[in-house]
């Protein structure tokens, strides 16, 4: 079937859960990124989630983003969900629901448990009345901004004993949990990592025990992983060799993401990797061709490399190729 409008994630999550794979949720904020991602998905026939953060919406404008995603659906005919990433208020979620999104995240994970439940429930009620699904979050992703050395301590992870009550009381459709992934290109400090024989940083392993505990308590329920870029070292190198400065950027090993996708994780968020591919490619182009000034000439290889990267993720990491 050829799709012409964004779909919700209900059907794709059900199939992903049963099939032991995950849907890629890629952040978009301009045309070349939308094209790179969706052309890759088209080639391997994968379902997709295109997600927009509050910042992307402020950058590109709601209407432009909606129309870009609609254009991609018409061009590819794929099942694509349009999702709000990290909605921080009922009003923002409502505005996206009213404006054509098919899925929203309400992230009240920094609030106390009861408050998180109350605001999530409010979003769920409005969303469900409008045929839109809701992702919520429990636990706080440890980020590099954590100056405290105990960033990897259990207090940052999702507490499995809270998830049943949270899902029952809020009615949310999927749940983002914290098991050791983190946002950005600098997911771990060098002190948190070990080094392999090549001298590359190796991050601490994900807490699969927490994921397993959560999924036992919520059988069949879709789990979401944020902050799941693997920070490809080839692109970090490309950035650094062409005038950039990104020392010790390190991500989540792809083998761990593949393992999570086989388990209850149905949605894996990837943003930094696309940024790196785009920036590395453009930096190299500028270095190699200082005389060029036509944006199409440097955006074209950037888009092509985003496409290759996304194809690799869909086929080798998420396992969702052929599942559209
Ligand atoms: Zn996130």
Low-confidence stretches: 144-150
The proportion of residues forming helix, as a percent range, comes to: 40-55%
- Enumerate how many helices there are, as a single number: 12
What is the CATH-assigned architecture?
Alpha-Beta Barrel
CATH level-4 homologous superfamily: Aldolase class I
Q: What does the average pLDDT come to? A: 93
Tally of structural domains: 1
Strand content: 5-15%
Spatial arrangement of strands, main beta sheet: 1-2-3-4-5-6-9-10
Q: Kindly, what is the distance between the CA atoms of the first and last residues, rounded to a whole number of angstroms? A: 9 Å
**The CATH top-level class label:** Alpha Beta
The dominant shape is: globular
Q: From the helix content, strand content and strand pairing, which structural class follows?
A: alpha/beta
Largest β-sheet summary: 8 strands, parallel, barrel
User: What string, H for helix and E for strand, traces the elements in order?
Assistant: HEHEHHEHEHEHEEEHEHHEHH
Descriptive account of the structure:
The protein has 324 residues and is an alpha/beta fold. The chain has one domain: TIM Barrel (Alpha-Beta Barrel). The protein is 47% helix and 14% strand. The strands form 2 sheets. It has an 8-stranded parallel barrel with strand order 1-2-3-4-5-6-9-10, surrounded by 10 helices. A two-stranded antiparallel ribbon has the order 7-8. About 2% of the residues have low confidence. Zinc ion binds next to loops.
Task: Jot down its keywords.
324 residues; binds zinc ion; alpha/beta; 8-stranded parallel β-barrel; globular
């Amino acid at each position: 079937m050829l799709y012409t409008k964004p779909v919700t994630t209900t059907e794709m999550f059900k199939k992903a859960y049963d099939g032991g794979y995950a849907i890629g949720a890629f952040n978009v904020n301009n045309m070349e990124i939308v094209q790179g991602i969706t052309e890759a998905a088209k080639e391997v026939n994968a379902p997709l989630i295109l997600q927009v953060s509050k910042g992307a919406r402020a950058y590109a404008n709601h209407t432009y983003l909606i129309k870009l995603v609609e254009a991609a659906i018409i061009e590819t005919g794929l099942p694509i969900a349009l999702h709000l990433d990290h909605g921080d208020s009922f009003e923002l979620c409502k505005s996206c629901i009213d404006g054509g999104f098919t899925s929203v995240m309400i992230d009240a994970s920094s609030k106390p448990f009861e408050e998180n439940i109350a605001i999530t429930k409010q979003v769920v009620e409005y969303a469900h009345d409008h045929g839109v699904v809701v992702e919520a979050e429990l636990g706080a992703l440890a980020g590099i901004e954590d100056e405290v050395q105990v960033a990897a301590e259990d207090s940052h992870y999702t507490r499995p004993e809270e998830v049943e009550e949270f899902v029952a009381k809020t009615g949310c459709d999927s749940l983002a949990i914290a098991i050791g992934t983190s946002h950005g290109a600098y997911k771990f400090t060098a002190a948190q990592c070990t080094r392999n024989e090549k001298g590359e940083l190796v991050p601490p392993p994900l807490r699969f025990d927490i994921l397993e505990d959560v999924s036992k308590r919520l059988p069949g329920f879709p789990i979401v992983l944020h902050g799941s870029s693997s920070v490809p070292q080839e692109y970090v190198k490309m950035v650094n060799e062409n005038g950039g400065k990104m020392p010790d950027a390190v991500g989540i090993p792809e083998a761990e993401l593949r393992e999570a996708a086989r388990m209850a994780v149905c949605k894996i968020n990837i943003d930094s990797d696309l940024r790196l591919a785009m920036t590395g490619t453009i930096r190299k182009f500028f270095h190699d061709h200082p005389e060029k000034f036509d944006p199409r000439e440097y955006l074209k290889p950037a888009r092509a490399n985003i496409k290759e990267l996304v194809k690799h993720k869909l086929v080798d990491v998420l396992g969702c190729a052929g599942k559209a």
